[in-house]
């Protein structure tokens, strides 16, 4: 206890590292638990006792039809439901999420957070969770009611005109009312029409419903009511209890939540790993500084176990202190994340803040266990100090044999990691290589950590020769200080190495993906413009007509996607297999590689193409016939006219037929909408056509017109955003690593107090002293950066070899990023040295010389 409080200042940075890591874990758990609570409340509040949906609707009620319209059932079903035993009331509703809503200026009112835009009929079930705060509910085709959050976000008011764009067309109405959620709205934009108008706007006809909300009579359970409703209406409909509907909705968001949760916990784990180095260094240096004290304790009767336990007890106190503060900081971090999500459009109320009892327990256990484990080696080293050796020498005795063993183990691990990466780069299947890659990453990382002290000697000397020698004696002293204890320098640099290795690896992978996709676009895409929705909405017929009417275009190619049941020549039936239908000009717009036949022939009547792997798996050759039972259509017997290569990036694994063939076997009202549309300008009219297309689609803001340059930039931006988010999460580990550099320098200054006093006494100025410490910090940071960037580029290059098996064949090293990170590491070293250098410069020379 006395040692802990005597060195509490030196423990502070280690405590901060524990605090940050625990805060990130607890903050992640609280944030994701709160989101789950919010969605649970929403789904429970909005679910009727029993709901009936049309065939084809998903379990969560979302629309799934590829014609852009929601699956519907006839109004006669409502009468049957009302006649079922145990039904108190039943109400038919219509809603769709395949819509876009615009204001009077044609600006999109859909959420930017990825939450859905819902347009539906105002009904009694919604009235339970929505309160009309202004105006009235919609009562005619010219009226619409909007949720209060959307009104506030877009500064709408009563009387404003909005347009609802669906597969049927565009319907315009004026805001007649504003309704506020009675539960937390996670960010959806909701618009209500009267029932008849909703049917006409979303489906194109009256007398149909997408859902029927059923309320149970008193004493009737939901499962019993479901059974009664099924008996009344028969098969062919989806009937769910309130719990089943809520569970299905929760399952839809659960996948995203779990990915986010475990990704954030993974980065917290990296921060913990980096923090281990900080704690090991802290206790190693504290033990070294107390070597004589430990010797005296041993001389007067303390056993090795007592010395060991005393160091571990200090670690336990540090872990408990840092973890308790970390749990509290984690709650604050969760609230901050909720506020940030609010800025992005996803509203989360702090009244739903959920702190499970397991969260603080997990935080405390992790923080304490990691801290104690990290302190075990220094504690063991302290217990092995010989009393006589300690009384003779103020420093910790070096263990040359242990150093040789460590170097040998490090070399073996590094070699094994390198071999695994080599094996990963040479496999024929990406799935097989991923195991080798994972093993190589782990082994090479551990190997570099273990071999760090051996590498420090060589790398620091090279850095010193390049960077420090120009500063004369001060630079040489900084180099020698970094080399004085290679184990300490290696551990400090390794903490920074881990974060930067991941940054470098992901940078290489991301840059290679962009370069490969760009290369494929240049080689295969022969169209000028690509028109599509960035949020996955299909292209409506009205928008397609607007594109076709655009002046200056030489051709327009429609691209549809649907599902079908395939019966192959080998007698196998493959259900729900994807097939792409496009205009014959698509063979020109996409110059995809074929291994047999000509892709243009796949667009002949009753013809198709298959990809190479599919052909091999089912013994398909040119001229083979495949029975294709189209979804919502009849069965066609299509002849295989082309076999495309599976070694492509764009449309990998696609099988093509013509839109004319699809239309021959699927009714017009069931035809799928276009996924995207390609357009090519007449010679010399590219710029004019580009502007004309944007103008033609002004009324359809959900679609984006891109030329090839725009498309490449969009790919780069998407991957860049993902990488920036990952870099932001890795910043936690890098911050902890910086704390490690600060702590190492601070303790090193204390350790060298008398030495610093002597140097000052013989003429070293304060400015030179500060410069020496800053240079030492810079060289340690650059040592870690060199190891991390080199290791990360090796991982990234190996990962690219696996991506090449999937068609991403271009290896691109982002040298500007790598160089920027390396230079940034030097500034990190300068920043980390500010406080230790300042404190060293303020030392009293006489007091420093008198220090034992």
From TrEMBL:
Which Gene Ontology cellular-component terms appear in the entry? Answer: plasma membrane
Domain of life according to the entry = Bacteria
Per the database entry, which stretches of residues form a coiled coil?
none
* Disordered as annotated region, ranges: 53-73
The MacB-like periplasmic core domain, residue ranges? 12-228, 492-691
> What is the recorded membrane topology of this protein?
Multi-pass membrane protein
Compartment(s)? Cell membrane
Residue ranges annotated as transmembrane are: 262-288, 311-335, 355-377, 407-425, 437-468, 489-510, 725-750, 777-797, 817-838
Q: Which residues form the ABC3 transporter permease C-terminal domain?
A: 267-387, 729-844
Annotated GO molecular function terms are: transmembrane transporter activity
Q: What name does the UniProt record give this protein?
A: Membrane protein
According to its UniProt entry, this protein's organism is Streptomyces spiralis
What lineage, starting at the top, does this entry show?
Answer: Bacteria, Bacillati, Actinomycetota, Actinomycetes, Kitasatosporales
């Amino acid at each position: 206890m006395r040692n802990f409080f005597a060195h509490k200042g030196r423990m502070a940075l280690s405590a901060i590292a524990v605090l940050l890591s625990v805060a990130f874990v607890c903050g992640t758990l609280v944030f994701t638990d709160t989101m789950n609570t919010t969605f649970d409340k929403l789904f429970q509040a909005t679910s009727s006792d029993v709901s009936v949906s049309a065939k084809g609707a998903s379990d969560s009620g979302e629309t799934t039809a590829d014609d852009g319209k929601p699956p519907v059932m006839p109004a006669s079903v409502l009468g049957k439901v009302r006649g079922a035993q145990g039904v108190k009331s039943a109400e038919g509703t219509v809603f769709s999420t395949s819509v876009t809503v615009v204001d009077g200026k044609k600006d999109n009112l859909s959420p930017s957070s990825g939450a859905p835009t819902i347009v539906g009929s105002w009904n009694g079930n919604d009235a339970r969770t929505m309160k009309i705060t202004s105006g009235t509910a919609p009562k005619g085709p010219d009226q619409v009611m909007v949720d209060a959050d959307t009104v506030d976000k877009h500064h709408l008011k009563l009387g404003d005109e909005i347009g609802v764009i669906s597969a049927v067309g565009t319907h315009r109405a004026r805001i007649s009312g504003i309704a506020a959620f009675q539960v937390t709205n996670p960010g959806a934009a909701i618009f209500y029409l009267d029932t008849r108008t909703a049917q006409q706007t979303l489906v194109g006809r009256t007398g149909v419903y997408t859902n029927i909300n059923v309320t149970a009579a008193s004493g009737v359970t939901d499962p019993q009511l479901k059974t009664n409703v099924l008996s009344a209406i028969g098969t062919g409909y989806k009937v769910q209890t309130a719990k089943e509907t809520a569970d299905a909705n929760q399952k839809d968001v659960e996948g995203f939540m779990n990915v986010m949760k475990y990704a954030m916990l993974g980065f917290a784990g990296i921060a913990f790993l980096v923090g281990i180095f900080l704690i090991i260094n802290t206790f190693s240096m504290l033990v070294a500084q107390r070597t004589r004290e430990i010797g005296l304790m041993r001389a007067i009767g303390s056993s090795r176990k007592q010395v060991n336990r005393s160091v571990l007890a200090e670690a336990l106190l540090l872990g408990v202190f840092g973890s308790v503060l970390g749990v509290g900081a984690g709650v604050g971090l969760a609230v901050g994340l909720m506020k940030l999500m609010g800025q992005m459009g996803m509203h989360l109320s702090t009244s739903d803040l959920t702190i499970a009892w397991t969260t603080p327990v997990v935080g405390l256990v992790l923080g304490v266990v990691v801290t104690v484990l990290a302190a075990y080696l220094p504690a063991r080293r302290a217990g092995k100090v010989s009393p006589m050796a300690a009384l003779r020498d103020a420093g910790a005795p070096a263990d040359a044999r242990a150093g040789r063993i460590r170097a040998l183990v490090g070399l073996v691990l590094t070699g094994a990691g390198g071999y695994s990466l080599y094996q990963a780069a040479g496999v024929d299947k990406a799935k097989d290589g991923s195991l080798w890659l994972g093993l190589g990453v782990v082994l090479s990382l551990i190997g570099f950590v273990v071999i760090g002290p051996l590498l420090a000697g060589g790398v620091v000397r090279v850095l010193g020769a390049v960077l420090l020698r120009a500063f004369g004696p001060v630079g040489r002293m900084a180099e020698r200080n970094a080399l004085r204890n290679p184990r300490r320098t290696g551990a400090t640099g390794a903490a920074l190495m881990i974060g930067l290795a991941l940054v470098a690896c992901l940078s290489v992978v991301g840059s290679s993906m962009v370069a490969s996709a760009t290369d494929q676009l240049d080689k295969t895409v022969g169209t000028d413009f690509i028109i599509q929705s960035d949020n996955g909405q299909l292209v409506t017929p009205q928008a397609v007509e607007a594109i076709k009417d655009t002046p200056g275009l030489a051709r327009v190619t429609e691209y549809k996607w649907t599902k079908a049941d395939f019966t192959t020549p080998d007698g196998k039936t493959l259900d729900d297999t994807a097939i792409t239908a496009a205009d014959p000009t698509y063979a020109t717009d996409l110059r995809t590689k074929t291994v047999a036949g000509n892709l243009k022939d796949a667009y002949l009547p009753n013809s198709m193409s298959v990809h190479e792997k599919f052909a091999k798996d089912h013994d398909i050759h040119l001229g083979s016939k495949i029975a294709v039972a189209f979804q919502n259509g009849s069965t066609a017997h299509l002849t295989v006219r082309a076999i495309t290569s599976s070694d492509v990036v764009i449309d990998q694994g696609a099988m093509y037929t013509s839109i004319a063939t699809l239309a021959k076997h699927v009714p017009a009202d069931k035809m799928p909408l276009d996924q995207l549309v390609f357009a090519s300008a007449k010679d010399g009219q590219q710029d004019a056509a580009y502007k004309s297309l944007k103008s033609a689609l002004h009324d359809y803001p959900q679609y984006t017109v891109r030329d090839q340059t725009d498309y490449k930039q969009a790919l780069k931006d998407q991957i860049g955003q993902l990488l920036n988010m990952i870099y932001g999460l890795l910043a936690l580990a890098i911050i902890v690593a910086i704390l490690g550099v600060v702590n190492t320098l601070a303790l090193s200054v204390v350790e060298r107090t008398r030495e610093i006093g002597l140097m000052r006494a013989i003429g070293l100025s304060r400015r030179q002293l500060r410069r020496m410490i800053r240079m030492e910090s810079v060289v340690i940071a650059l040592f870690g950066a060199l190891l991390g960037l080199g290791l990360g580029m090796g991982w990234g290059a190996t990962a690219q070899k696996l991506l090449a098996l999937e068609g991403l064949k271009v290896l691109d090293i982002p040298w500007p990023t790598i160089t920027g990170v390396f230079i940034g590491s030097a500034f990190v070293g300068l920043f980390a040295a500010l406080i230790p250098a300042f404190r060293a410069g303020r030392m009293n020379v006489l007091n420093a010389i008198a220090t034992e």
